[in-house]
Amino acid sequence: MTVLETTRLKYEEIKPNIGARVLNSKEELLSGELSADIRELIERKGVLVFKQVHFTNEEQVAFTRTLGTFMPEGEGEDVFNISLDPKLNANKDYLKGSLFWHADGTMNPLPIGYAILSSRVLPTWGGNTEFCNTYAAYDALDEETKAKIAKLKVMHAAWNSVFYYEPEPSQAYLEAMMRIGNIELPVVWTHKSGRKSLVLGCTAHHVVDMDWVESARLLNGLREWATSEPFHYAHEWEVGDAVMWDNTGTMHRARPYDPDCGRLLVRTKTGGEEPIV
């Protein structure tokens, strides 16, 4: 009789509403045998931490491919360098908005599915990455608020995030960002699974057909709720750590850090599987 051994996912919970540390070896992760279990776990926990896994670029790409449709970062580029060093990232200005709560690809027809960051160079200070679980935040809302926001739409625009980091931008820069366009998205994303999450972040400009003062009050209050302690996890990086998040049910942001410190993270991602509806 042949005895078959199946690799099992091993993890420990970080917080009840967000985060788990995966304890399997790099070899087990790269085998692909855990991909279904990882997808199930991240849908529940939003964020997975792989401490001291020390992925190379090639290994991180290979691991990402086990989880869904791999999405290159650009023509001929499988990874994206999260760095303010222009020699490592020619589009470093893209990172200015990363200091504020957001989800990746909000303006795209299909937002990014999963994203993975690996730490290569630590900052001299700061630079933690924070996450919040927008599935859990929605679930914990009172029924009155759920009813109030159920059918609301919000105009999202990449140019709205400019005013978070540059309150008085040049007209040329603002108009360049405006050319990316606008999109109306629901406050509540009803997923194919039936679960619901909140769609917020620094691209959210105003609630459609709502008084702007009331709109600002509502969006700010929901953001404050979604990023509050029960739904929040902050990762303090060590070289070799990798963190994966479900971009369809979380938001994230980087904390401020020394811009001249050489901090380097490497990102890979999978393509989205459903639009925001």
Report what the structure shows.
This protein has 277 residues and is of the alpha+beta class. It has helices spanning 26-30, 35-45, 57-65, 134-139, 143-149, 158-165, 171-178, 212-226; strands at 11-13, 20-22, 47-50, 80-82, 114-121, 129-133, 153-157, 182-186, 188-190, 196-198, 204-207, 232-235, 242-246, 250-254, 264-269. The chain has a single domain (11-269), classed as 4-Layer Sandwich (Double-stranded beta-helix), CATH 3.60.130.10. The radius of gyration is 19 Å and the shape is globular. The protein is built from eight helices and 15 strands. The protein has a seven-stranded mixed sheet, covered by helices on one side.
Task: Give the topology, please.
Layout: E1 11-13, E2 20-22, H1 26-30, H2 35-45, E3 47-50, H3 57-65, E4 80-82, E5 114-121, E6 129-133, H4 134-139, H5 143-149, E7 153-157, H6 158-165, H7 171-178, E8 182-186, E9 188-190, E10 196-198, E11 204-207, H8 212-226, E12 232-235, E13 242-246, E14 250-254, E15 264-269
Parallel strand pairs: 2-3
Antiparallel strand pairs: 1-2, 3-13, 4-15, 5-13, 5-15, 6-12, 6-14, 7-8, 7-11, 9-10
Features:
single chain, 277 residues, alpha+beta, Double-stranded beta-helix, 7-stranded mixed sheet, 15 strands
Q: Gap between N and C termini, in Å? A: 51 Å
Helix vs. strand class: alpha+beta
Spatial ordering of strands, largest sheet: 1-2-3-13-5-15-4
Percent range for β-strand residues: 15-25%
Instruction: Return the CATH topology.
Output: Double-stranded beta-helix
Any idea what the CATH architecture is? 4-Layer Sandwich
Helix content bin: 10-25%
Strand runs, count: 15
Shape label: globular
- Identify low-pLDDT runs: none
